[in-house]
Amino acid sequence: MSESQIADADESNQGPSVSPAEIGDDDELEGSATEGQEGDVTNPGVSEDGSQVVEEDTSKTVEEDGSQSIEEEEGEDGPGTVEKDGSKTTEEDNGEQSEEDCSEVDDAGDVEKPSDTRGSEEEPEESEGETDPENNEESEEEDSDTSLEKCSHFEMKLEAELIQDTVEAVGCLVDECRIHLTTGGLEIKAVDPANVGMVETELQQKSFDIYRIDEGVIGVNLDRFDEILSMANKDDRVRLALDPSSGKMNIEFNGLEFTMALIDPDSIRQEPDIPDLDLGGDVKLTSDKLHQIVKASDMVSDHVELGMSQRDENTFFGIAEGDTDDVKVEYEEDNLVHFDFSSGDASFYSIFSLEYVREIKKVMPSDTTVTVQLGDEMPTKISYRINNKPISVLFMLAPRIKS
């Protein structure tokens, strides 16, 4: 056939020629087969409508809907199969066989579409070492609340001053707390919302005139409790009892009877464990001397340095530095009840917020002996007994970082 005859045939058929570049990537193959025909496309040539079909390196199969299923040669991405929708399923490198994407024809000649097996895939089993985070959190909560069995019965009677001082000591840091009723007595631990101050107090069983309890925990609003107790004289006898019908606490003294609602202890912030610290030394002094340090420091600054020294004399000191004024209060060992310096340094101190030290001073009796444990840039522990009676209070304050 001459060149002019070939040109005439092309113009009469008016079919566009398709080049390999126009076929495009393997991922977009729909519509490249001749519409309305089924079967295999083999050798290149001119179709009935005059369009050319170009044979590529891959073998093509025309599907029922006219799309092509192409088995690709293994290349950099590994062997793969293009599905009806043009997406490509690639066999994994680990050698697992991919699912068949082409349609299967049964004996009757009907086209059987591949079944979707995704819904029937078995979910992977969790290994023994793995746990569900939600279940793990629930188990941790259950473990932490095993000791929070609510008290079902209690009846106590004691001197008003003891319970007043106990509630005030804890109330200087928090508004509500858990009270643990044990066979040994009444125990309270709490930490303030800023995690700066912690308090722990214990009122021993022998402090009570009457102490009948089922061990457990109750939750108390300390502001409300302190307000009621402020109505009692220090030497009044206060009776505390649980009303089993209402679940409230009855408070009776000097002819007055109050009924106060309790708080669910599970809703109150978990109490801390006050850690054991290896501090540089400790002193014992009367509470009025500590009051003097706090009062003087509060006049010039919002923080105070508490420390110990062995340079010239064994001393315990408090220093406050303001914008214009400074103050220093120092007590030598002879004016202290006890002085124990175990640090290898000649002196040390830590800085504390006067806001917290001031609140502790307010609830501390003025005629008691106070133990102060200190270190260099370490928390301080301040402990005392109330009026030398079987009730102990321990505070711990976090230091401020030295600038």
In short:
By secondary structure, the chain is an alpha+beta fold. The chain is 17% helix and 33% strand.
Mean pLDDT: 74
* Apparent shape: elongated
- Domain module tally: 3
Q: Spatial order of the strands in the main sheet?
A: 14-10-11-12-26-25-24-18-22
What is the percent of helical residues?
Answer: 10-25%
| Spatial separation of the terminal alpha carbons | 99 Å
- Please identify the top-level CATH class of the largest domain: Alpha Beta
The major β-sheet equals:
9 strands, antiparallel
Summing up helix and strand content along with how strands pair, one would put the structural category as: alpha+beta
- CATH-defined fold name of the largest domain: Proliferating Cell Nuclear Antigen
Tally of extended strands?
A: 26
Radius of gyration: 42 Å
Separate helix tally: 7
Spans of at least 5 consecutive residues with low confidence: 1-147
CATH architecture grouping of the largest domain: Box
Range of strand content: 25-35%
Characteristic key phrases:
17% helix, alpha+beta, 7 helices, single chain, Proliferating Cell Nuclear Antigen, 403 residues, disordered N terminus, 3 domains
Topology at a glance:
Elements lengths: L2 H11 L6 H4 L21 E2 L5 E2 L5 E4 L5 E4 L8 E3 L5 E3 L13 E2 L5 E2 L20 H12 L9 E6 H12 L4 E7 L2 E7 L5 E8 L3 E6 L2 E6 H8 L7 E6 L6 E5 L2 E5 L20 E6 H12 L4 E7 L5 E7 L4 E7 L5 E4 L5 E7 H10 L5 E6 L5 E6 L5 E7 L6
Antiparallel strand pairs: 1-2, 3-4, 5-6, 7-8, 9-13, 9-15, 10-11, 10-14, 11-12, 12-26, 15-16, 16-17, 18-22, 18-24, 19-20, 19-23, 20-21, 24-25, 25-26
